[in-house]
Amino acid sequence: MKKVFINGCGVISAQKTFDNKAFLEEVITYNDRVMPVVNPVYKDFISGGAARRMALGVKMGVVASNLAMQDAQLDSVDAIITGTGMGCLIDSEKFLSKLIDNNEEFLTPTSFIQSTHNTVGGQIALGIQCKGYNFTYVHSGASFESALLDAQLQLSSGEEENILVGGVDENAPHTLEIHKLIRFVKEENTDTSSLLESNTSGAIFGEGAGFFTLSTKEQESSYAQVIAVETLNTLSKENLEERIISFLEENGSNVSEIDAVILGNNGDVDFDRYYNLLSEGVFANTQQVYYKHLCGEYNTASSFGFWLGAKILKTQSIPEVVKLNKKQTSTLKTILLYNQYRGENHSFTLLKQC
């Protein structure tokens, strides 16, 4: 199988991550239940008329993909693979609201057309005139990893040379209220700088888009090499360490070779136990990193963690704001990412220095 390299990144999040020259030098803290994105100047990438017709998630996806391609110095790609847990929620809610308000009469089709989950991938393809493979995965908390796995398989088998892969999710008012009612969102405003000390149920929700250009060709600008990706719908805490050890062994590595582990802690006292089991157990002597206090929790938040791992390997530095423990690492060659959401859709991603 061919090697797969990350050659470009484009991330829009609750931090100023759309500037690829910076690496969490200025961190924004929130005291809230939901974290909004820091928007770039969309008109620099999308015409004003087109931008007005696009919901936030579509705009984020289009701009993040543009940034990733610029970073890799590409004008087009062979395929576009997108992951989204909830799709274009804002347009979905608009259409359903009009359906109710107008008694199912005199409906305009715009919101319905733009409410489909593959709208983001379609808009990206239209913008860069990509007529190749275009697929969207909707696999809840493993949506981004599903897209990543597809891209890795296609590149490794030689079917494509450059693939744009990413994850995007947006918040919408009604859906957000439902998540608050069922207590998936924290009941009180929480300071993101002390998120893991909250000791309460629920997470601080967020939104964002993370896109990456993956290629079989290494460049001077390459960030890291994608070694392996695995997803599991269900996995008990009792079997977690054993499954991670097996995953590493299957890919020619072991726990002692992991220089840093990136964990998806989100401050939910009920489900952070999965991460605590690893941080206090098999990875107790490993440099530990976390990130959801910077971007919030959403179905494709792991794309932010993927960006973080790639940047760490390229810059050979770990920002203080993401350090979970005080372990020091002289060199950063191999990073493992682990994520899950509410005890389901577990994912492991192994990255190595180019």
Automatic annotation (TrEMBL):
Pfam annotation, one family: ketoacyl-synt
Alphabetical UniProt keywords: Transferase
Molecular-function GO terms, alphabetical: 3-oxoacyl-[acyl-carrier-protein] synthase activity
GO biological process, one term: fatty acid biosynthetic process
InterPro entries reported for this sequence: Beta-ketoacyl_synthase (IPR000794), Ketoacyl_synth_N (IPR014030), Thiolase-like (IPR016039)
Transmembrane segments: none
Domain Beta-ketoacyl synthase-like N-terminal: 50-219
PANTHER family per UniProt: 3-OXOACYL-[ACYL-CARRIER-PROTEIN] SYNTHASE, MITOCHONDRIAL, POLYKETIDE SYNTHASE-RELATED
Entry protein name: Beta-ketoacyl synthase-like protein
